[in-house]
Amino acid sequence: MLQRELRKLVIPFLGPSLALYLVIGLWPNLEAFYWALTEYDGLAPIQTYVGLENFSTMLADRRWWGAVNNTIYFAIGTIITLLPISLLFAILIMSVRRGREFFKTTIYIPSILSVVIVAFLWVFLLDSTIGLFNPALKALGLTEPLKQLLGVNSLNWLGHPKLAKPTIVLIQLWQGLGFYTLLFLAGLAKIPGELLDAARIDGAAGWGLFRHITWPLLFPTTQTVLLLLIINGVQIFTLVYALSGGGISPLTQVMATYIYRTAFTDRLFGYATALSVFLMAVVMALTIVSRELTKREAIEM
Amino acid sequence: MSRRVAQLASWLMIAAVLVGACAPVATPEVVVQTQVVKETQIVRETQVVKETQVVVATPAPKKVVEFASFWSADSPNGREMIALGYRLEAENPECDFVFTEYPGAEAYKTVNLRAQEGDPVDVYSGGANALVPGGGDEWKAGLIYDLAADMAGPAYNPDNGTWIDTFTAGARFEMEFDGHVGFVPANQVVLALFYNKALYEQYGLQVPRTWEELMANSEVLKQNDVASIGGGGFNGYVSYWYDNILYRLMGNDRMYALYNKKDPNIKWTDPEPLLAAQMLVDMIKKGYAIDGFVGGDFAANQVAFFTGKVAHLYIGTFVMGEVADVIPDDFQFGVTYFPTVTGYEDKTPYESLAGYTNSFGIFNAGQSARAEHSTECAVKYLKLYSDKDIQAGLVSSLGFLSAVKGVPGPSNIPGVGELLTNQKEGWPTNQAMYYNLDASVRSKMWDNVVLLASEQITPQEFVELMQADYDAAK
Q: Which of B198, B216, B199, B196 is nearest to B208 (CA)?
């Protein structure tokens, strides 16, 4: 009876939100497919239908593919650094008996900060002229060994072609570590203690315990973390944009910043929308693939 | 008895006669009252008609000058423009000044849409990019008022000659084309080579007039562990240096033709664009340019300049406003023109400044405007704005660089006034150099220069990339 009464409230409560979503969420997304087939400067009322021309332009646009390469670099770089290191930190924090909350808080602090603030902070820390980082390296006598090791003439961390991308990956690691560590901590906390105790009684310990018990049981969390890293990696915008103050060079240009520039600086809204449609397809494909892969593993467990 | 009866009867008859005589008087009284009422009604109707006529006659014959402001009304610039509007109204009672805000760099597009719909504002601020030499889209669409005839007339103060003669050479270079005048300058921003006088004195350096002298100074500074050229780094701003070197090598007309795809015989693969690329890379390879960062507007390099870590900055006069609060009190500014190249001195006068002019354009009156606008009043407003004395006051309060001749530069940029006074040629910065091509050409050039400066591509590859991008440009 109560259920039936509650059901009557579904439409009045859900309706406005659904309508809003349709108008400002779904409709623009659908309209983007049409815009992608037009030439449009975003302001003048003229929108010329050009068929698939924008997509053929995309295929021949070497700057776009440079941005795609950089995006893949950042996505993979973030996954292979953030995923294992945040898992390691979660396990380390779980293993300590005292000060667990302190470590949790400390590691999470960078995640509280706005991405823009993080970017500005690192720009001025790493600046080769007035930053604090290079003088610190010099004081420690590490400048020349580092130059030799990295094969560069100057330690221009965010400007040198060889250093800019790895530096951005490390900044992402610094900022995201706390958030992803907390996700793994939550996953670890959900593993029943009896299972671990039973495994220990059966003689499992250390790496064996982790490999056969903890890791398989963490798969749902890993799946979530991986999914978030992929989506955030492919859609990376704010950090790169803020680190370069808007004047992004092709050395660090990513898909999202290139789309932004194409639309709002070059005023090629039709072409930019075609690039966005491509980006959306990539994100969807990667999401589906990653879900399928991790689902299979979870079932096996 | 009968006699008494007869007397009474007589009296009665007399009374009756008297009463009868009075009765006709009473009837005329009623008529008179009726007439009075009628007259009163007529009077009331007349009053109503008079009141109505007073209302209809109220509006004064004023004409609107709508000023679409880049600045908000409560900003220093906004307040000054409104104050000038009051002065316009006081001096020209027929003009009605209306201030509307269209803030932000992109707002001119919105203003343009109003013009396209036939309801334009009269004066628009900040639209230099829409009014570039040769005419932007708005000019070509016939939306912009041609000021040529007004400019040939007297300035606000007739003692200052014709209106056009009051502006600097650099400003006129952008304002005039093919006998037309597209806008009135709001102010000028010029790019000049700033140098640290204290460092120059410390190392016994002379102010460089040629590229070779600048490189020689840079070598001395490098030997003393001082970075010579600030504002480098691998971001698009490094193209300011490329533009200048190329300008010195090619001269204004040829560079214009190259940048705007005006002459098929002038190509990026010609000797000068290649030589400019080689000179830029050579400067960086020798370690004369500072290790910058991929950052907006090279703020860190500005700090490095003002703290004596770098000796030169090639930058716009806006730098003083941007970092005014952090400039040390004892900092000694030097400012000079960008050096010429030995063997190419005849291509450009040494006294040349790159820059851009912020502008006020006037839209032609629209066909569907909701109020009666006046181009005449708009012209009067801009004449008032560009008066020499008023400009001096504005420079003093707002700190900009005036485009009117003889107006001193802002007090916090010593020497820049002399630079402007001696200026022989002005040319626009790269924002305005691609006026007849699509906007992506500029983005592509910045990308290519970054690749060149960061040694990802060779000078030869750079010019080939530029040529390919220009071939593809619409």
A: B216
